[in-house]
């Protein structure tokens, strides 16, 4: 075993660096981490400098406390990307189906006693976590082929006591099991929903939306304890307190198996909700008002059908690929773009000076969603006059907002980006400064971006949030020299083979693990 100059073993130094970076990303002091893992601050200091032998037990405790998967027992070591930037991209790339419809439809498959086949599902970590949860409770799930068609067959009775808690905790999508599960059992427990570290994400609207269906949830010891009173049924329209996507989906899934008509107001009309409505239609649940904020659901008390459904393409992935073209000043054709969900983004980009073409619309495999192919050309962009902020659909999608920070950094002038939705996501956009961008955090919700940027390569640990992490990766494509992006689980949570697919366009991204 070789040692560093100060006597530390190299692998301990590497682990120490990862722990330090991850701790700083959480905004924790060494003392806070020490308290979380029941050790002393001086021990954490030694660990971070590679001067302390580490037991596997301590490693997994630290990993869990930081929720970073730095070192996780029984799992593959974290993956990193090495990017050789400054290359122009070319060619065409097709958008895959969406993460958010994928996870919603998997949860919705619990409504169906029959066989559900989902076509071309995004094969991403978020879907994998939900599959692990489904498998653990007795659902048979099976990838059918290389096209990522997925078959789901539920058991006669779900075994909720056997739920894979670790998988459940790594995703927020688990919350969407509440709606379907009220049709299965009168009392059950679910682990708390996890996911990206975007600040507090309330679950209250879910509780309020499901209460009229007789669901009472108490949070205790890291779990939601749910009791269902079947005699309780919605007596009047359900008015959502927030126009959230997953809360709308939960209300839809609760209403789908309640015989009779349920009206949901202030519903999200967003893309994943539309996909869920079309899917429920295939299951025999008639829904009026799809794509609007009032949904009228004609529920049925039993569903037992063998069905086949194709979720539609991901507007956020489309935005990511458009951003890749913009930041690298390349001409790329992005195929299968769900245009209804990108119109505002494109209108804004046009204002900023983007040169692009779009084909005539054609139908997605679900026969409802409208797609186009977009060819994006190198353009000289200018900052928009007004601030950029998201709104529930039909508005600029909150998940697309981080891409505008990247794009604003390539544009001439100053842009104010206002993320009123998430408490932490704007903060992570300041990671772009490591690659040469001028991004100033004005307050937790607003960043000020001054462009254009002369990008330069750097080593960055992935921020613990999907879109900001992808934004950093895309900036690395533009940065001359070599960059390293560490611990990319967070990207793999929402994108399938992103590095390989960008490489097919001429990017040079290598994958490596260090221990
Ligand atoms: C699996 C899935 O589909 N995930 C999406 C879903 O998560 P999800 O439906 O879980 O979104 P949240 O419930 O976390 O809502 C996002 C944030 O917006 C706030 N909020 C939301 C609606 C509203 O009318 N007012 C309001 O203030 C919430 O308090 C929260 O802070 O929607 C988010 C917001 O579009 C997206 O980032 C996620 O990709
Ligand atoms: C925040 C996101 O989604 P999730 O609800 O899966 O955390 C996202 O897609 O960027």
From TrEMBL:
Catalysed conversion reaction: phosphoenolpyruvate + UDP-N-acetyl-alpha-D-glucosamine = UDP-N-acetyl-3-O-(1-carboxyvinyl)-alpha-D-glucosamine + phosphate
General function of this protein: Cell wall formation. Adds enolpyruvyl to UDP-N-acetylglucosamine.
Every HTH cro/C1-type domain range: 19-73
Pathway: Cell wall biogenesis; peptidoglycan biosynthesis
One Pfam entry name: HTH_3
UniProt keyword Transferase present: yes
Primary location class: cytoplasm
One of the protein's GO biological processes: regulation of cell shape
Record-level GO cellular component terms: cytoplasm
Organism: Saccharothrix carnea
The protein's name in its UniProt record: UDP-N-acetylglucosamine 1-carboxyvinyltransferase
Domain of life, per lineage: Bacteria
């Amino acid at each position: 075993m070789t040692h560093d100059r100060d006597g530390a073993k190299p692998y301990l130094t590497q682990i120490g660096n990862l722990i330090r970076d991850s701790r700083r990303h959480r905004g924790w002091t060494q003392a806070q981490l020490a308290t979380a893992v029941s050790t002393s601050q001086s021990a954490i200091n030694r660990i971070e400098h590679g001067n302390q032998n580490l037991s596997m037990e301590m490693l997994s405790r630290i990993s869990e406390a930081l929720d970073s998967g730095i070192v996780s027992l029984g799992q593959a070591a974290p993956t990193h990307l090495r990017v050789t930037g400054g290359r122009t991209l070319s060619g065409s790339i097709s958008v895959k189906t969406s993460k958010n419809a994928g996870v919603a439809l998997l949860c919705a498959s619990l409504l169906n006693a029959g066989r559900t086949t989902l076509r071309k599902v995004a094969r991403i970590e978020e879907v994998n976590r939900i599959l692990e949860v489904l498998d653990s409770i007795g659902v048979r799930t099976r990838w059918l082929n290389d096209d990522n068609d997925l078959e789901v067959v539920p058991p006669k009775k779900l075994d909720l006591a056997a739920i894979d808690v670790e998988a459940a905790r790594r995703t927020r999508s688990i919350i969407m099991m509440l709606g379907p599960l009220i049709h299965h059992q009168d009392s059950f427990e679910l682990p708390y929903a996890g996911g990206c570290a975007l600040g507090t994400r309330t679950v209250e609207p879910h509780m309020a939306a499901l209460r009229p269906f007789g669901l009472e949830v108490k949070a205790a010891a890291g779990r939601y304890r749910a009791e269902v009173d079947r005699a309780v049924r919605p007596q009047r329209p359900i008015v959502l307190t927030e126009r959230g996507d997953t809360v709308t989906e939960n209300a839809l899934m609760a209403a789908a198996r309640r015989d009779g008509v349920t009206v949901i107001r202030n519903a999200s009309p967003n893309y994943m909700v539309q996909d869920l409505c079309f899917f429920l239609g295939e299951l025999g649940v008639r829904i009026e008002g799809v794509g609007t904020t009032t949904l009228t659901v004609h529920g049925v008390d039993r569903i037992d059908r063998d069905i086949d459904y194709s979720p539609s393409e991901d507007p956020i992935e489309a935005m990511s690929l458009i951003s890749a073209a913009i930041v690298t000043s390349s001409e790329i054709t992005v195929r299968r773009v769900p245009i209804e969900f990108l119109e505002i983004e494109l209108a804004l980009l046009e204002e900023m000076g983007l040169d692009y073409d779009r084909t005539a619309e054609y139908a997605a495999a679900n026969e409802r969603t409208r797609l186009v192919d977009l060819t994006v050309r190198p353009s000289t962009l200018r900052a928009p006059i007004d601030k950029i902020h998201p709104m529930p659909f039909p508005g600029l999608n909150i998940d697309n907002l981080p891409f505008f920070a990247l794009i604003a950094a390539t544009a001439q002038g100053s842009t104010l980006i206002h993320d009123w939705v998430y408490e932490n996501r704007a903060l992570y956009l300041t990671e772009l400064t490591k690659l040469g961008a001028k991004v100033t955090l004005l307050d937790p919700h607003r960043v000020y971006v001054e462009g254009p940027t002369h990008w330069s390569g750097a080593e960055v640990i992935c921020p613990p949030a999907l879109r900001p992490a992808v934004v950093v990766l895309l900036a690395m494509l533009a940065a001359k020299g070599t960059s390293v992006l560490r611990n990319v689980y967070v990207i793999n949570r929402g994108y399938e083979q992103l590095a390989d697919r960008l490489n097919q366009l001429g990017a040079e991204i290598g994958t490596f693990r260090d221990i």
